[in-house]
Design brief:
- By secondary structure, this protein is of the alpha/beta class.
- Helices cover 44% and strands 15% of the residues.
- The protein contains 15 helices and ten strands.
- It has helices spanning 16-26, 44-50, 62-68, 83-92, 101-118, 127-136, 161-164, 169-172, 182-190, 192-205, 243-251, 282-293, 297-313, 322-332, 341-357; strands spanning 6-11, 31-38, 54-57, 72-75, 95-98, 122-124, 144-151, 212-216, 222-228, 233-237.
- The protein has a six-stranded parallel sheet with strand order 3-2-1-4-5-6, with helices on both faces. The chain has a four-stranded mixed sheet with strand order 8-7-9-10, with helices on one face.
């Protein structure tokens, strides 16, 4: 039996997701990289190794998509920089494997409208959303009660507020269960990542915020649950390894094998869950509020958070100053809905200006 070649445009090829995606692609001859893109790192070696003609470093990455005509776009760029390519794929009905959650959070209604017009597949790569997607497959949406997204709680789950005051960048970058790029690792430590995922889940699955719960689950074995109206809940379990959701999205609907081992339940597995602490991790609440307000509030949440995380990584602000910076920016934006991409870009820029304006000059 022959398998049709799937031409993959890999955006964010030099990152953590990008590298793991290349490993998955290399394991399946029918997956072919047709385009590679990064923000600033050169791609010549990678392009030569994979025989890729279309390459782009920085700038408007929709150009490399236009040139390469992919069957699937894996958007693994970090941050708002991924918005243009997410909208490009959704508008054209080109299958989008989405790791870049920030683009769906920021573009929100615009992205959903483009997705409806394009009519293509949107396959989540975020492990929690991939888990929800799989638990929902083939189910009648009317039977769904609610979703539960799990959060590891990050490296500071057990630290008190005074202890959080002095955490270092190195400590924030040492995630207990997942190995990821620096921005998402800090977002995991503040729980902003779970806030972004909450908004992402709202747009992906069309559920109201009150039907999406976040629970802390330190070992990250259960990735998400879907509760149904009869009292049953379906959960998705596995080792925390991004190659599983990446492979699921890239090989969909085949669910190809991966090198990730099975869970050894007989060896003993304790599953612990608890409520996130809103006092120590206010960004989750701020994300929920921004999501519920709608308009460009989620875009502003994301933009201010990107500025704050950048400032933390540069040592310009402390860990506990990230959330107030975001809260302050959210209080000052108008949050009016964006009618098109230029308006969205303006809303993003405004929130960045407001958050950046509160930082002490370097
Ligand atoms: N890592 C994970 O386990 C994980 C899990 C779930 C979701 N995600 C999501 O996946 C996305 C990527 O995360 P990551 O951990 O792979 O990040 P990462 O390791 O920091 O990699 C980011 C990638 O984006 C590229 N990039 C940065 N700025 C860009 C720009 N302005 N234009 C074009 N490309 C740009 C980088 O290129 P350069 O190397 O040239 O800077 C790099 O290839 C994020 O949205 C994250 O939230 C990640």
């Amino acid at each position: 039996m022959t398998t049709d070649v799937k031409r993959v445009a890999l955006l964010g090829a030099t990152g953590s997701i990008g590298e793991q995606a290349l490993e998955v692609i290399d394991a399946h001859p029918y997956l072919e990289v047709c385009a590679l893109a990064s923000g600033s790192q050169p791609l010549d070696e990678l392009a030569a190794a994979h025989g890729v003609e279309h390459v782009q470093v920085g700038g408007d990455l929709t150009r490399v998509l236009e040139a390469s005509e992919p069957d699937l776009v894996l958007n693994a760029v970090v941050g708002f920089a991924g918005v243009g390519t997410t909208l490009w794929a959704l508008e054209r009905g080109v299958t989008l494997a989405l790791a870049n959650k920030e683009s769906l959070v920021a573009a929100g209604d615009l992205a959903v409208a483009a997705w409806k017009r394009g009519g293509g597949l949107l396959l989540p790569v975020d492990s929690e959303h991939s888990a929800v997607f799989q638990c929902l497959e083939g189910r009648d949406r009317g039977t769904v009660d609610s979703l539960v997204l799990t959060a590891s709680g990050g490296p500071f789950r057990n630290r008190s507020l005074p202890e959080l005051e002095s955490v270092t960048v190195e400590e924030a970058l040492a995630h207990p269960t997942w190995s990821m790029g620096p921005k998402i690792t800090v977002d995991s430590a503040t729980l902003a990542n779970k806030g972004l995922e909450l908004i992402e889940a709202h747009y992906l699955f069309g559920l109201e915020y009150e039907k999406i719960e976040v629970v802390v689950h330190p070992t990250s074995v259960v990735h998400a649950l879907v509760r149904f109206r009869d009292g049953a809940a379906l959960a998705h379990l596995g080792h925390p390894d991004m190659r599983v959701p990446i492979s699921y999205a890239l090989t969909y609907p085949k669910r190809e094998a991966t090198p990730v081992p099975q869970l050894d339940l007989a060896a003993g597995l304790t599953l612990e869950f608890g409520a996130p602490d809103p006092e120590r991790f206010p960004l989750l609440r701020l994300a929920r509020e921004a999501g519920e307000k709608g308009g460009t509030f989620p875009c502003a949440f994301n933009a201010a958070n990107e500025i704050a995380v950048g400032a933390f990584l540069e040592g310009r602000i402390g860990f506990l100053e990230i959330a107030p910076l975001v809260e302050d920016a959210l209080a000052r934006v108008d949050g009016a809905p964006a009618n098109d991409l230029p308006e969205l870009v303006e809303a993003d820029a405004e929130a960045r200006r407001l958050a950046g304006g509160r930082l002490a000059p370097v």
